[in-house]
Amino acid sequence: YSLNEYLKNTFGEKVYKISLDGGMTCPNRDGKIDTRGCIFCSRGGSGEFSADRNHSITEQIREAKERIGRKTDCKKFIAYFQPFTNTYAPVEYLEKIFTEAIEPDEIVALSVATRPDCLPDKTVNLLSRLNKIKPVWVELGLQTIHEQTAEKIRRGYDLSVFDKAVKDCKAAGLYTVVHMIIGLPGETAEMAAQTADYIGKSGADGIKLQLLHVLRGTDMAEQYAAGEFEVMSMEEY
């Protein structure tokens, strides 16, 4: 059941995600857990397609709609907070930017990408309140269930933390999407299938399957250049 089909069935037409930057960082970068980030994450927090964080959320939405309008006449959008960890801030600040994001009529849902270890009760309660206004999705960056790989990519939390985050989000009535990466260094196709199977049984509503993407300027790019691992061929993928 593809996302595109789900959106058309739910909202009656094609819906585009608008990538927004809430100006946050990550506990894996500010020293709380580490200062280097995950080895695959870019300096922009994997938000290369986001709007300018120096602009207000309203301005970011307007600019994104103008860009999208050059190639499609889409009328409905999802406000997607993508770069870094988008619940890693005081709940008062989160309420301000998330409320601003869902205010326009053409924004039909709020999607928040975050880490499972950055969902305190106050934040979950906030998202639950907003969910009564417009649908709220929480997108959790799991990437893999395998602890050896998690250590290698410097994920910074245990699998039990992910389990609790899904449980808490579902108890709060939030739509939960889980990100996994296919082709992580040292992982076999069987290991990727095990991660997908685990997510499928976790209670999550959706899964985002991502092919490993090696970005310049990351530690992973240095490892790739040194021949420490190979990426998948198109046929393998």
Please explain how this structure is put together.
This protein is an alpha/beta fold. It contains eight helices and six strands; from the N terminus they run H-E-H-E-H-E-H-E-H-H-E-H-E-H. The protein has helices spanning 3-11, 57-69, 91-102, 121-130, 147-152, 159-171, 189-200, 219-225, and strands spanning 15-20, 76-81, 107-114, 136-143, 175-182, 206-211. A six-stranded parallel sheet has the order 1-2-3-4-5-6, with helices on both faces. Helix 7 (189-200) links the parallel strand 5 (175-182) and strand 6 (206-211). The two termini are 20 Å apart. The model has no long low-confidence stretch (mean pLDDT 93).
CA gyration radius, whole angstroms? 18 Å
* N-end to C-end Cα span: 20 Å
Number of strands: 6
Count of DSSP helices? 8
Mean pLDDT: 93
Low-confidence residue ranges: none
Largest pleated sheet: 6 strands, parallel
Structure described in brief:
It is built from eight helices and six strands, in the order H-E-H-E-H-E-H-E-H-H-E-H-E-H.
Strand-helix topology:
Elements: H1 3-11, E1 15-20, H2 57-69, E2 76-81, H3 91-102, E3 107-114, H4 121-130, E4 136-143, H5 147-152, H6 159-171, E5 175-182, H7 189-200, E6 206-211, H8 219-225
Parallel strand pairs: 1-2, 2-3, 3-4, 4-5, 5-6
Helix pairs in contact: 3-4
What keyword list fits this structure?
237 residues; globular; six-stranded parallel beta sheet; alpha/beta; 8 helices
